[in-house]
């Protein structure tokens, strides 16, 4: 899944890059068409010149300056986005790319300044000193180009390093692997929209509108991610529906709007912009972001549930197939054990009879309960106790072997997947007991409400070279890890620690 997720995010990132290229190219073509259309109809702002009794040439005062202005912005964007900034982000040819960036920015500012002295020559008459007019043209060109190119380079840098930077944020890694690529994609789309917004409005830029655009989309994006990855999952966990989610979001929207108001007041000269911004933000949060986040979560949840169900069924099928391949006829073995048990009683071999009886109980469990999806925890524990008692029969004559069990008897009618706990105990007896060296095993099992706490610790000793278990690789533990991840996904915690002298397992399990 991680490979698929990484591959998917790479595809999305490539698609966003293509989107940025085609949006910029489309805007450039539309701007060319607009210029040509105005030439065809003899417009090109000539009325401003005639009002101020200034000679006007459509080529000199409109077509060529506008062509230079839009062309240098378009090609600068391509240069920054696909050449210089990606190399700077990767620390390649740093000096050369810095020089290119500074040079292109300087040339663009000069080009815009000179072009505006032609397209807006009628504004010169407003000044007593022509130098003041040129200062105005330079100031406007510098402000616009500097801000626009800052956005270009911010987008290009984030495109290269954004994913890596987001992965360094600790609390984002607390969630699943999808959230970081999704935040990366959403931020890139917002930056693209911001660049389009800034480029289209050109020198008519209203910084108050720009502040609105800087704040409202990120607030909605942040709100959507909080809803999808925190608010809705917690509501669903407590069996709350859309109504509770919707009215809860209305309350959050009011709080966010108050915070937004506090941020906006110092920057707004026009008092009318503040209520417009707040109303726009409230409408977006309640009418667009809230239902969209709910729909996206349901779609993602259903998709993940379907994948999880398919993985679970596939795991069960593989387990059943392996069981069928490896088993002998259980009815025959069960009947044979009954015969041996009767013979042991006739010969007064009580220990042998006890062992056969417990083995028979284990076979009965394997024959009936093992094929079910869920069984009572009591039956699972009975199987564990029978297995432990059989092992104690084997080791009872050795004073150096200590087996301590603290297994709770009151188990609250809980249900569990069969044969889930036994691999840990089998592993302890297989690898933790030596008939020649002091050994110990400690097993603890208890429940608190619907949570199972299971601990197994055992001694470790170095096996002889001729021991057939020396090269075994703990396949049983790997299988049980897989079963836990399939059947109890998000409902278990498994801790395995190994030192030079001890092997320890702790399992916490949420049961039904």
UniProtKB/TrEMBL annotation:
InterPro entries: Bact_2-comp_sensor_kinase (IPR050640), HATPase_C_sf (IPR036890), Sig_transdc_His_kin_internal (IPR010559). The chain crosses the membrane at residues 20-42, 62-82, 94-115, 141-158, 179-203, 209-232, 244-267, 273-297. GO terms for molecular function: phosphorelay sensor kinase activity. SUPFAM superfamilies: ATPase domain of HSP90 chaperone/DNA topoisomerase II/histidine kinase (SSF55874). It comes from the Bacteria. GO terms for cellular component: membrane. Keywords: Kinase, Membrane, Transferase, Transmembrane, Transmembrane helix. Residues 319-396 form the Signal transduction histidine kinase internal region domain. Signal peptide: none annotated. PANTHER family: SENSOR HISTIDINE KINASE YPDA. This is Histidine kinase. It comes from Pedobacter sp. KACC 23697. The lineage of its organism: Bacteria, Pseudomonadati, Bacteroidota, Sphingobacteriia, Sphingobacteriales.
């Amino acid at each position: 899944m991680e490979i698929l997720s990484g591959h998917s995010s790479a595809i999305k990132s490539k698609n966003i890059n293509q989107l940025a290229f085609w949006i910029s190219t489309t805007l450039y073509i539309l701007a060319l068409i607009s210029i040509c259309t105005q030439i065809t109809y003899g417009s090109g702002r000539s009325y401003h010149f005639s009002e101020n009794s200034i000679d006007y040439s459509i080529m000199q005062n409109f077509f060529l300056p506008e062509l230079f202005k839009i062309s240098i912005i378009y090609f600068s964007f391509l240069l920054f986005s696909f050449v210089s900034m990606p190399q700077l982000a990767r620390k390649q040819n740093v000096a050369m790319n810095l020089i290119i960036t500074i040079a292109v920015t300087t040339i663009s500012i000069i080009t815009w300044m000179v072009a505006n002295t032609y397209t807006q020559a009628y504004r010169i008459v407003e000044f007593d000193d022509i130098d003041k007019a040129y200062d105005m043209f330079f100031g406007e060109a510098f402000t616009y180009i500097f801000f626009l190119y800052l956005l270009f380079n911010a987008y290009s840098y984030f495109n290269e390093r954004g994913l890596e930077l987001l992965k360094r944020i600790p609390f984002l890694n607390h969630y699943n692997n999808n959230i970081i690529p999704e935040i990366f994609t959403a931020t890139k789309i917002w930056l693209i929209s911001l660049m389009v917004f800034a480029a289209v409005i050109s020198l008519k830029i209203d910084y108050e509108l720009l502040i609105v655009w800087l704040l409202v989309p990120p607030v909605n994006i942040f709100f959507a991610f909080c809803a999808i990855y925190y608010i809705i999952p917690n509501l669903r966990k407590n069996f709350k529906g859309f109504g509770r989610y919707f009215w809860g979001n209305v309350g959050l929207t009011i709080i966010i709007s108050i915070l937004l108001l506090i941020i906006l007041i110092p920057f707004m000269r026009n008092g009318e912009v503040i209520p417009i911004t707040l109303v726009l933000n409230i409408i977006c949060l309640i009418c667009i972001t809230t239902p969209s986040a709910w729909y996206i979560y349901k779609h993602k949840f259903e998709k993940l549930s379907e994948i999880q169900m398919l993985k679970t069924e596939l795991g069960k099928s593989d387990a059943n197939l392996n069981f069928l391949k490896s088993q002998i006829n259980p009815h025959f073995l069960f009947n044979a054990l009954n015969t041996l048990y009767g013979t042991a009683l006739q010969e007064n071999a009580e220990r042998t009879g006890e062992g056969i009886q417990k083995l028979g109980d284990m076979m009965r469990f394997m024959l009936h309960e093992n094929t079910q999806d869920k069984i009572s925890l009591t039956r699972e524990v009975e199987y564990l106790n029978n297995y432990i008692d059989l092992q104690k029969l084997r080791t009872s004559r050795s004073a150096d072997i200590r087996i301590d069990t603290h297994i709770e008897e009151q188990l609250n009618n809980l249900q569990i997947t069969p044969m889930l706990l036994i691999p840990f105990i089998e592993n302890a007896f297989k690898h933790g007991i030596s008939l020649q060296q002091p050994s110990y095993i400690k097993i603890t099992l208890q429940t608190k409400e619907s949570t199972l706490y299971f601990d197994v610790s055992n001694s470790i000793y170095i096996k002889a070279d001729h021991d057939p278990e020396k090269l075994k690789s703990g396949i049983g533990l790997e299988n049980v890890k897989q079963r836990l991840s399939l059947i109890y996904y998000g409902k278990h915690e498994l801790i395995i620690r190994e030192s030079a002298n001890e092997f320890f397992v702790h399992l916490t399990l949420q049961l039904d």
